[in-house]
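Entry:
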Amino acid sequence: MRFLLILIFVVINYLNADEIQRIESIVKDISELRAEYTASQKELLIEKNKNKSLNKEIHSLKLKLKHNKAQTKTKNVLKCVPEKIIVTKVVTKTIVEDNKFPKLQMKSDENIETFKASTFRLKNEALVYDAIAGNEIYKWVAKTSFTSNQQTKKWIKVTGYFTKKVWAKAVEEMWIEKENIIKKDKK
């Protein structure tokens, strides 16, 4: 019987020993987690402080940049001022002519007439001018299509043109000599 009591006592102690070990391991884990939490909070605080200092540095750099831009503008303005100012005097005499005849002007045979808008095409490569007999502004290839509703005897005004089969309104004044164009037939 004693043996049985000793055996029961030993078994109960063994079972309790496992429970005590389990509780001790839980306490140990909690202690480790607390230590890790404290360390991470310290690191977080250090990073926050670094972030604050970097934000302050960015702010001060932005202020320096604004200041430098303002100085650059003033330096550029100052560079535009010449070092020496040279004063020159121009003496002019006005000659008054007592010409009783009015100034003669060439008679313009370029009367602009308006017609119903039509589509035209270039026969060959042609120059585009900014006015009637004006300055060359473009050189268009043969078969370029355009629209117009104004013409003179020798010139036709471009009111719109086609780029990749899409019509676009002419923004600037453009004129082409009539000898380079043919009227497109409607299909």
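Residues 2-80 form the longest helix (79 residues).
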